[in-house]
Amino acid sequence: MDGRGQDEVEARVVGAVMLFAQDTVVAALRVMQQYGVRQLPVVDEEHGELLGEITDEQLRWMWTVAPLASMAEILSVLQEGSPEDTGAQVLELAPLVRIPGAHNRWLH
After folding, report:
1. How far apart are CA 38 and CA 44, in angstroms?
2. Pick from 39, 50, 73, 108: CA 20 to 30 A from residue 3's CA?
3. Cβ pair 29, 74 in contact under 8 A
4. How far apart are CA 101 and CA 25, in angstroms?
């Protein structure tokens, strides 16, 4: 499929697939991989209100510092600063277990 055709397919999928505010980084990455998209809207589960959009690049970065952070937590701090600042702010909201020598990385 050429680039234009892929963009059209992705636009249709994004219109039908969305993330909810309580979805985690891990869940969001799984949805993006399943549907082959790089960006998805995040909506309020109760009212269907658009809260924002998140990209796979943002999620991959957040996965390294807070894989269980929710979309609501991430969107609330994304509006305030750079991705590096966002990671620090999300860690304050959804801290990982602090293990000496872990360098604030998710252990698996």
Report:
1. 20
2. 50
3. no
4. 23
Contact 73, 90 (CB under 8 A): yes
Q: Which amino acid is at 105?
A: R
Model pLDDT for residues 88-100, shown as the tens digit of each residue: 555 555 554 444 4
Of all helices (H) and strands (E), which one includes residue 64?
Answer: helix 56-65
Task: Decide if 49 contacts 57 (C-beta within 8 A).
Answer: no
Amino acid at 107: L
Rounded to two decimals, the pTM is 0.65
pLDDT in tens, 27-83: 999 999 998 889 999 999 888 899 999 999 999 988 888 888 999 988 887 777 655
